[in-house]
Write a structure and sequence with these properties.
The protein has 2 helices and 14 strands; from the N terminus they run H-H-E-E-E-E-E-E-E-E-E-E-E-E-E-E. It is mostly beta strands. The chain folds into 2 domains: 104 residues, SH3 type barrels (Roll); 56 residues, SH3 Domains (SH3 type barrels), CATH 2.30.30. It has a 5-stranded antiparallel sheet. A 5-stranded antiparallel sheet has the order 7-6-5-2-8. A hairpin with a 4-residue loop joins strand 12 and strand 13. The longest helix has 15 residues.
Length: 168
C-alpha cells in the first residue's frame, strides 16, 4: 500500500511542478526530481503554510500550521477518504495533512560565485535583513523562484531569500 501511495505522490509531484509561470519556468532549469534522503515529505505549493488537522477531514480542528518548505514524517498511509490526507508528524505533533501539499522530492542548489558566504534574507532584496549566512559550497533546498531574481530557499531550519546568481 505504501508503494502505491509513493507512486501516487510522485505523479502528483510531477504534475505540480510543471511550469505555469515565469517563476516556475526558471525553477525547472534545475532537477526537480532529487528524491529526499531524510524519509519525509516536504510542504510545497502553498503561500505560507498548511494545516495539520486532528483528523482526515477539512472540518477537523487545526492542531498546528506547517510552514512552506518544512518536512513532515509519514506515520501510515491509511485514509478512508482515498489518500486525500496523509497521517504525519511535525515537530512531535501527530495529525493529518493534505497530500496535495506534500512531495517526496526536493531540488538542491549549491552556493557558488562568492568569496566565503551568501546572505539568507528576510525579503527578496539586497538591503533586506539577514537571517543567517550560508557558506560557499553549502547546499540549500529550493522552495520557489521569485520574479526579482531571488530564490526562496530552506537552509538549516531557516526559510529566506538568496539572489539566484549565487546558486547553481
Amino acid at each position: 500500500m505504501i508503494s502505491k501511495i509513493m507512486s501516487l505522490l510522485t505523479v502528483i509531484a510531477v504534475l505540480l511542478f510543471l511550469p505555469t509561470t515565469t517563476s516556475a519556468a526558471r525553477a525547472t532549469s534545475f532537477n526537480p526530481n532529487v528524491t529526499n534522503t531524510e524519509g519525509g515529505l516536504y510542504v510545497v505549493n502553498c503561500k505560507e503554510a498548511i494545516s495539520l488537522r486532528r483528523a482526515p477531514s477539512y472540518d477537523a480542528d487545526v492542531l498546528i500550521e506547517i510552514p512552506l518548505g518544512e518536512m513532515v514524517h509519514v506515520i501510515d498511509d491509511f485514509d478512508a477518504r482515498g489518500a486525500e490526507f496523509a497521517h504525519v508528524t511535525f515537530k512531535g505533533v501527530e495529525g493529518w495533512a493534505l497530500y496535495k501539499y506534500l512531495t517526496p522530492h526536493a531540488t538542491l542548489l549549491t552556493v557558488v560565485n562568492c568569496q566565503e558566504y551568501v546572505s539568507l534574507r528576510t525579503q527578496p532584496y539586497f538591503d533586506a535583513d539577514v537571517i543567517t549566512t550560508i557558506p560557499l559550497g553549502e547546499k540549500v533546498r529550493f522552495v520557489r523562484a521569485e520574479e526579482v531574481n531571488f530564490y526562496y530557499v530552506y537552509y538549516q531550519g531557516h526559510l529566506g531569500y538568496v539572489n539566484d546568481q549565487y546558486l547553481s
